[in-house]
């Protein structure tokens, strides 16, 4: 026993001595490296540059003065890889220990072939229009599974909304009060807006932000682009660009309302210096804040490219499939205080089901020293339906079914389950050629595109409580539409004197739209329309100092009516196209740790299309032209890096949005509930619906430790009216909502990086509604011959305090 005790004592002492010795050796073998990252051209520091020790899973970012510190380095030769947005990456090889400070001068990057893919439809620093570029890092800041409108919620003049109340499922945004149908969206220069409705359905692209490199948002008309008319703003999206090194990432998140997000990404890096393949697979599910408003979303993204010295050829394939329970009806105003999650739909399969596949073949390259070229072929295939249970409230003849005779009983109404389908193809090509003179003073771009939409709309009855003279899958309506959209543009930026640039942009757009068949109200809607639009733009920019640019421009845009304007209106009374004149003027300043933008705008509309309450010949509400309306405003946004720990940012927009004269139509009902006609009421100088006079955002970031960041995000939206009458009983109240985020990063040896993120939304549990709708009608009053105007408002409430957490692992 004693010998065993002595043996254990000696072994413990030996192991302890060995451990201390190894620890001492380890401590003596560790070294620190200091350095500074600078701009090679102007000698200014580059804060936020990424410095990575290759092969050792170590890294850091440069401070506000460009300095960096890398502790704990072993005594050996190693390579540092330094990257910074807008600059050529650089690799530095040195021996550790290293005497003195490492000075790295980065060269500003020239426009690469891959970046030129989106350059033709984008604004540059010398373009006289109002824009903001949202980087991948900014998108990732909030990306825990919500749709893109919510990731962009803190950009200037943006108001986002969600049917299900939590940012997953059917979502949308408005910019300067313009809804999604008036915002042009392109992906790699290829049109994304639905050709008929002009809308963008983000629910069909779940987790798309995880495959986005950057987004440029141009407010106002902006520069010429492809696809739907820019009538309030444009969003130009560039998908992920190549990575030099192989990688793998996984993102998993869980939050309130049983929201889950699972994403896997991987890429080969550059193979043989020429080839690269990237892929992503995602699934997002949520029960939603609103009752039964679940979402089951799946998507993937695959990109394969060949990268030569002067040419890039890429093939992108991405797809999204969604099933969502409908929450389209909103919550009646009288239930907001007692049942904010109310959903009028109760049928178990009252769902929307859709899949959309996108194929893109893209070329970009240099043709000699002065010319660059870009071309893309694309094809999008979309198909799906929404299913509805219709109770005993509609006549069978509304479905083309004769009354059913059973014995002595004539049945004219019965319960029905119907599906309304959309099966469409969208395909075409876009191109651009860019010429830059030898002295760089002349920059000319010629571009355009030709695209065709071929859509089939039809409805099926899949069940009836009492069978009639119809079979399952019989189509009770069926119509097709073909739309050709062609455009050509030329943009010229000319430096006429030192730092003074003149800009001109001329676009011609032709739209040919034909449709044939029976609409869902059983009317024949066959017809065609042909439009030709000339959209000129001109302006100037002047750089008074490095990083300080003044600009002003005037642009004209024209826009054709949307599908419902053709199908709901008699062909002889189709509304006129809309016209917009847009004046923009402002200043952009970027100086070290401080940057800001100030701009004023005026958007004057002729024949703007709005819902007035007017009925067509079968009782459907139609849109009508209003002669004169306008939006005018002042926007400010900026950011200031106070020091290595504190960063402040935000924006505020003040606007006035008016319709000169607006005529509203109100239905008149009898005591039996029959429609007896309509009454008109004229309103003057009223606010445009859904156009708040103030929209603001403020963000504070605090980084007490290099890998730990706390963020506080605040959003304020002023009063919004639900229609154009500016009545206080048809209004969305102003709201202020705050979110907070915690981010923590570690770099253990077994993986490259692990990020922990937690966002608490609506931390003060505000009750607010960013979206809704209204309608009003007359009913008989108690007194003989009297009438009462009844107004019914419906809202889409957002969730109270809720959270979403996630873990991202990079290999």
TrEMBL record:
Location of this chain's protein in the cell: Cell outer membrane
PROSITE patterns, A to Z: TONB_DEPENDENT_REC_3
Main subcellular localisation: membrane
Similarity-based family: Belongs to the TonB-dependent receptor family.
Organism this protein belongs to: Lunatimonas lonarensis
Domain named TonB-dependent receptor-like beta-barrel: residues: 338-762
The UniProt record lists the keyword rRNA-binding: no
Alphabetical list of InterPro entries matching this protein: Beta-barrel_TonB (IPR000531), Beta-barrel_TonB_sf (IPR036942), CarboxyPept-like_regulatory (IPR008969), Plug_dom (IPR012910), Plug_dom_sf (IPR037066), TonB-dep_rcpt-like (IPR039426)
Listed name of the protein: Thiamin-regulated outer membrane receptor Omr1
Sorted UniProt keywords: Cell outer membrane, Ion transport, Iron, Iron transport, Membrane, Receptor, Signal, TonB box, Transmembrane, Transmembrane beta strand, Transport
Gene Ontology molecular-function annotations: siderophore uptake transmembrane transporter activity
Membrane topology: Multi-pass membrane protein
GO CC terms of this entry: cell outer membrane
Stored Gene3D superfamilies: Carboxypeptidase-like, regulatory domain, TonB-dependent receptor, beta-barrel domain, TonB-dependent receptor, plug domain
Record-annotated TonB-dependent receptor plug domain positions: 125-232
Signal peptide boundaries: 1-29
